[in-house]
Amino acid sequence: MCDRPIQIAVIGDKAVGKTSIVRQWLYNDYSSLYSTTRLATYHFTSLFNGQRLFHIRIIDTPRFDDTNNTDPQQEWVRMYCFRRAHLFLLVFDINREETFSYIKNIYREIIRIRYNNNNNFYSQQQQQQQHQQQQQTEQLTDIIINGDDEQLTNHLPVIVVANKVDFISTDLRFANITITNSRDIQQYVKKNFKANTILCSAKYHWHLVLLFKEVCRMLETVEDTVAKQAAQQARRRLQQHGKHCHVM
To answer: Which residues, at least 6 apart from 76, have a Cβ–Cβ distance to it below 8 Å?
Structure first.
């Protein structure tokens, strides 16, 4: 069990049911009155899958609007989630195709920010290493670069959540908008996100247990990654402190 909490970011467009999913699962509470999420909400809880106990922090986020980047708090939350979250729940309304387009854009943005951040970090490390002895440089490179290669080859830990399936109508006028497209969406997610899509209804608590079973399944891999990253950071700090330590 890792001491650091695993951070799960719940991200999606307005009115897709992000808060309803979190509150229904954590507190068995649902409200039919809609209230726009304007500030991020943090929920601390634990999950036990029968073998391992996971300490998690769920970040229920507002809609990240590109036209409103002047809000410093929203921008801080956005960048924190994109860079630091260990698992993403990308939520959309299965009856509104534009909400799926939104999470596609969010996914691309997360990839761009994470990989650019990694590239900038490691380029700075390489510049610092040029001023060190060759032996120290090789040791640090083994620690840093190996970790980076593994991060770049791994897929982003994502679960796509199709909420509000209770609104799917049997009326033929709406069948081509919901049921047919939902199959196409699942295939798209499988191919491009390398992730699973969970259809659920926060209102009726339908498939929320299935959703968080999938969360538990992914947490095993995520926690191992978190522990490995923490160990790598500790080794880097030891290497950095070792440069300034002298035996008196």
So the answer is: none
- Spell out the domains of the chain, with CATH numbers in brackets: 6-244 (3.40.50.300)
Cα-flanking dihedrals φ and ψ of residue 71, to 5°? -75, 110
pLDDT in tens, 158-203: 999 999 998 876 545 555 555 557 788 899 999 999 999 999 999 9
Tokens of 91: 């939520």
CA atoms 71, 77, 82, 88: torsion sign: negative
Query: Which tokens in the block code for residue 68?
Result: 């409103």
Q: What is the pTM of this model?
A: 0.76
Mapped to the 3 state alphabet, what secondary structure does the chain carry? CCCCCEEEEEEECCCCCHHHHHHHHHHCCCCCCCCCCCCCEEEEEEEECCCCEEEEEEEECCCCCHHHCCCHHHHHHHHHHHHHCCEEEEEEECCCHHHHHHHHHHHHHHHHHHHHHHHHHHHHHHHHHCCCCHHHHHHHHHHHHHHHHHHHHCCCCEEEEEECHHHCCCCHHHHCCCHHHHHHHHHHHHHHHCCEEEECECCCCECHHHHHHHHHHHHHHHHHHHHHHHHHHHHHHHHHHHHHCCCC
Q: Residue 225 corresponds to which tokens in the numbers above?
A: 């990654």
